[in-house]
Amino acid sequence: MKAIQFLKDSSEAGSAREVELPTPTPEGHDILVKVEAVGMNPVDFKVRPGEGSEPKTLGFDAAGVVVSGGSDATIFKEGDLVYYAGDVTRPGSNAEYQLVDERIVGIRPTSLDAATSAALPLTALTAWESLFHRLRIDFETPDKNAGKTLLIIGGAGGVGSMAIQLAKLAGLTVIATASRDESADWCRKLGADHIINHHGDMPGQLSELGIENVNFIANYNDIDRSWEAMGEMVAPQGSIVLITEHRNHLDMGGPFKVKSVTICWELMFTRPMFKTDDIIEQHNILNRVAALIDEGKLLATANDNLSPISAGNILEGHRRLESGKSIGKLVVSGWE
Q: Among 144-153, 267-276, 313-322, which stretch is predicted with the lowest mean pLDDT?
């Protein structure tokens, strides 16, 4: 099978090549998927092999067709159209065929093609888990969430794009951050009630909106730059979820202690990495997201599509993501 691999020491946007690898055979809970399209995420360039590492087949988001399954695989059958975000510890989706644990795979939306579906899994899972599993917002009772506020830092990115929509379905008032006119317009299109600029005085901008503080903060952007501001903006007994790496020591005291703030982390890969007892939740979430898409309650977030799946287009995708100016999701689809 064809695969796109990054070579040793390509921690900078460096060389990738097309290689021929054996088509793997599924065992246990694994299914073999013929990959039709891949979604690209910042994690792709963050895990490129460094000096002394072996070449890697990267890629996490994918949409494709089930070819076969292992002895313990019972959820899917040959020919099922699926989508998933994969497992950071295993070979990725930048290949014609991929093995993936069926318990983290969903039936993709019937209303979308493979490319548009491939943009969804990682961001949808991260947004869903961060809001409803980490912050413990109740998705099923939007009436009870009326009047509660959520600040999304990084609203126009892939995760923020899904989180805005899910939070609105859950009945929250959503304030999203965006630093450019086009990203602010994107957030409004997805349902954000208010927009503030994360490069400016965020607490001051909240005050101008008549909002003293927020019940929840989902930081999908730069933790270090916004740490002090989050301490000011979060409500007493409020909650904050984080997904990105921090560069400096984070002082958990100060306003966070005085306000008894809950601070938690979200990593979508935790369940597949550790084969947690509730790993099947990712299958359930993806099926729920597909249903919401097909019901017209969620908008797809694909905003850019490169074709075909090739070393050159994968590299171009990395470059665009590293610019930090992406809006929505970038996908790469189709094999030559």
A: 313-322
